[in-house]
Amino acid sequence: MEGGVVEADASAFKECFSLAWRNPYVLRLAFSAGIGGLLFGYDTGVISGALLYIRDDFSSVDRKTWLQEMIVSMAVAGAIVGAAVGGWTNDRFGRRFSILVADFLFFVGAVIMAAAGSPTLLIVGRVFVGLGVGMASMTSPLYISEASPAKVRGALVSTNGFLITGGQFLSSLINLAFTNVHGTWRWMLGIAAVPALLQFILMLLLPESPRWLYRKRREAEAEAIIRKIYPAQEADKEIQALKDSIEAEIKEEGSSEKINIAKLLKTKTVRRGLIAGVGLQIFQQFVGINTVMYYSPTIVQLAGFASNQTAVALSLVTSGLNAMGTIVSIYFIDRTGRKKLLIISLCGVILSLGVLSGVFYETTSHSPNVSKQETSHFSSYTCPDFSLATTNWDCMKCLKASSPDCGFCASGTNKLFPGACLISNNTVKDLCHSEGRLWYTRGCPSRYGWLALIGLALYIIFFSPGMGTAPWIVNSEIYPLRFRGVCGGIAATANWISNLIVAQSFLSLTQSIGTSWTFFIFGVISVVALFFVLVFVPETKGLPIEEVEKMLEQRDVHFAFWKKQAGESEKKANTNV
Q1: Which of 365, 422, 476, 569 measures 20 to 30 Å from 433, CA to CA?
Q2: Residue 432 and residue 428: Cα distance in Å, rounded?
Q3: In this structure, how many other beta carbons lie within 10 angstroms of the beta carbon of residue 354?
Q4: Which domain of life is it from (predicted)?
Q5: How far is it, in rounded angstroms, from Cα 84 to Cα 496?
Q6: CB atoms < 10 A from the CB of 454, how many?
Q7: d(C-alpha 339, C-alpha 536), whole Å
Q8: What pairs with residue 457 in β-bridges?
Q9: CA 481 to CA 503: how far, in whole Å?
Q10: Per-residue pLDDT tens for 418-464?
């Protein structure tokens, strides 16, 4: 808590789980609020598989890349508004109220999507879901942070990250379970109403954040909650520390409610905290994570796997690794530190994106040729552009034909042998399948497809423990209490705006410059992100808010991030005396 002595040592992870029997109330608070992370993750993951079947049901969506991007990104656009409004509602009405509103919006959106009869109504449902996800994205870690003992704060906030990735994994399981069910994508999207309803009920039974209550002069309620969170011998000390800290803030400000952008930018510690926090949130998106999570099955198809079911099943691997990586983060975040994890994570991400860029370059430059003999086998469905061609065609050139759209029917002998370039529609697709051939409209057959899956797996393994969770943890603890809600809202809004840009442009980029160059661009951005972390992001491991503020005030830059800071060494020395 504010002003308390924070010592995040190697036992933080074990202490977090020991709460299960020592103080289950804390875990109840953390996991109930963390369902907001589950909703966040489920929405991120479920659209990736649902989109394949939405394209099958709505021909307009299948033909127009921008409409596919719109369906994905409108939830992100809603989240931008939700995160921005969430910052205000958190400070004005409290963390608990904001989570309840988020659940209501998510429930309404899920029902609308499940009943959607057109792409337009589907987009409306996505906006409602986005509003809820945006509010939950910045409120859940904030609530958990403020309702957690300082020593295990990082580990418990990481449970929110685990539930985000758990939601993504759950969505992949749901997608796979409903691939052969009537109304496929409606079930995938509509079932999301269940966790929203569950969290709404649970949060009605839980209290408000004790820090927010103290800020609003509701001391008795706050003290009662703190006594439930901390052992009896520590509670009085934490209550007094929190009280002194808030009174000092109010005395400095003259009023606890006078917060505006000008004040944020003029306050050195807040300004520097915003640079670090907002920068991390922007880079989290621009290194390409949500292209993998939103479009994972599509990327699998671009790598040469034609079947929807196969693409959804293989995307389960990435979401599963993402969830496992977050478990690793829960263990190491208070043991190793935020900054070190970020640096290791980004180094691995750069390597993985290099692999993906190289693999997709080989995939697109060595695709199977189009055979006139194979194409003549389906003479009445020959791609018009191919009929007029005077040069040799390969599969990639066939898929780029647009008047009308064309697809590649692989050879029945070996998918890597020359195949047929045909008009792309359901009739031709079924005809190709009836002869035991594979039908490609996204990517081409390739012997390098499995290498692309390995690249995706490496990307997730490196991204998830560091860049996946650390930005949210840093943002939950880097700002002074009086600015925390607003600054958290700004950072979450920056995250969602970056998310929107990436989600709305990925498919268009792959069409215009190719998948290989798209991943190369993400790799270059990751290099920039690495230098940003080295220079601008402080290590907040095991530090109370006051020490974080002092660090930002002094603007200490620790390039030797693997070495212990002087303050930390002194504290350990004092502990051992």
Answers
A1: 365
A2: 6
A3: 15
A4: Eukaryota
A5: 10
A6: 13
A7: 10
A8: none
A9: 33
A10: 999 999 888 898 899 898 899 998 888 888 888 888 888 899 889 98
Residue-wise DSSP of 87-114: HHHHHHT-HHHHHHHHHHHHHHHHHHHH
State the CB neighbour count (10 A cutoff) for residue 366.
15
Distance from the first to the final alpha carbon of the chain: 25
pTM for this prediction: 0.73
From CA 133, how far away is CA 455, in angstroms rounded?
29
C-alpha span between 41 and 168 (Å, rounded): 5
3-class secondary-structure state, position 380: helix
Q: Which two tokens stand for residue 151?
A: 């020593």
Stated length of the chain: 577
Edge to edge, the sheet with strand 406-409 lists: 420-423, 406-409, 439-440
pLDDT in tens, 108-147: 999 999 998 889 999 999 999 989 988 887 788 888 877 7
Dihedral (Cα; 175, 176, 181, 185), 10-degree rounding: 20
The closest alpha carbon to 477, from 551, 553, 544, 555, belongs to 544
Contact call for residues 213 and 46 (beta carbons, < 8 A): no
Give the whole-angstrom CA distance, residue 293 versus residue 162. 15
CB atoms within 10 A of CB 342: 28
Whole-angstrom Cα distance, residue 87 to residue 90? 5
130 with 108: CB under 8 angstroms? no
Chain position carrying tokens 């269940």: 194
Residue 145: HSE in the Cβ half-sphere, 13 Å Cα cutoff: 26
